């Protein structure tokens, strides 16, 4: 899959703005159930929206979810809706954005830095970039 097969990377605050401005825009969180439960989740309640949660890889094996595209389609999102994909750091979500673009969805973005962001010099996430560091709403567990 080529890097040019998706709409591109956007920063978390750009994702929030797009979700706020576009009624059909959807945030698709591709993290695992364990991450949803223990790390925290974006809170779109202030926008009157909910996060669509469809995992890209299956925990604990971290094999690709063979039903990913079908599950996103089954949710009823429109093919012309802006889809913003989020994971822990922006790697899995980029792959998901590419896959959904290949599946015919028109506007698929990767939220760069993901929910927790890149690791800092000490190997910890949550201090460099990402949804949490940007100060965007989130809830624990």
Descriptors:
two-stranded antiparallel ribbon, 9 strands, alpha/beta, 24% helix, Oxidized Rhodanese, domain 1, five-stranded parallel beta sheet, 141 residues, 4 helices, globular
Helix/strand-derived category reads: alpha/beta
Q: The biggest beta sheet, please?
A: 5 strands, parallel
Strand order of the largest sheet: 1-8-7-2-4
Roughly what percent helix?
10-25%
CATH homologous superfamily - what is it?
A: Rhodanese-like domain
Note the gap between the termini. Answer: 33 Å
Mean pLDDT: 94
Multimeric status of the protein: single chain
The low-confidence parts are: none
Determine and state the CATH class. Answer: Alpha Beta
Q: Would you identify the CATH architecture?
A: 3-Layer(aba) Sandwich
Radius of gyration over C-alpha positions, nearest whole angstrom: 14 Å
CATH topology: Oxidized Rhodanese, domain 1
Using the alpha-carbon principal axes, give the shape. globular
Number of strands: 9
> Which range does the strand content fall in?
15-25%
Count of helical regions: 4
Plain-language structure description:
The chain has 141 residues and is α/β, with parallel strands linked by helices. It has one domain: 3-Layer(aba) Sandwich (Oxidized Rhodanese, domain 1). Helix content is 24%, strand content 19%. The protein is built from four helices and nine strands. The strands form three sheets. The protein has a five-stranded parallel β-sheet. The longest helix has 11 residues, at 92-102. The model has no long low-confidence stretch (mean pLDDT 94).
Entry summary:
By secondary structure, the chain is α/β, with parallel strands linked by helices. Helices cover 24% and strands 19% of the residues.
């Amino acid at each position: 899959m080529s890097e040019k097969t998706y709409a591109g990377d956007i920063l978390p605050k750009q994702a929030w703005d797009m979700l706020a401005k576009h009624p059909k825009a959807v945030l698709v969180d591709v993290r695992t159930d364990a991450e949803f439960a223990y790390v925290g989740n974006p809170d779109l309640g202030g926008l009157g929206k909910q996060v669509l949660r469809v995992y890209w890889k299956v925990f604990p094996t971290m094999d690709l979810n063979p039903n990913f595209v079908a599950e996103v389609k089954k949710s009823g999102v429109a093919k012309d809706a802006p889809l913003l994909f989020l994971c822990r750091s922006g790697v899995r979500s980029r792959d998901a954005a590419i896959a959904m673009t290949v599946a015919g969805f028109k506007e698929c973005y990767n939220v760069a830095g993901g929910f927790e962001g890149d690791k800092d010099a000490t190997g910890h996430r949550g201090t460099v970039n990402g949804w949490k560091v940007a100060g965007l709403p989130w809830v624990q567990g």
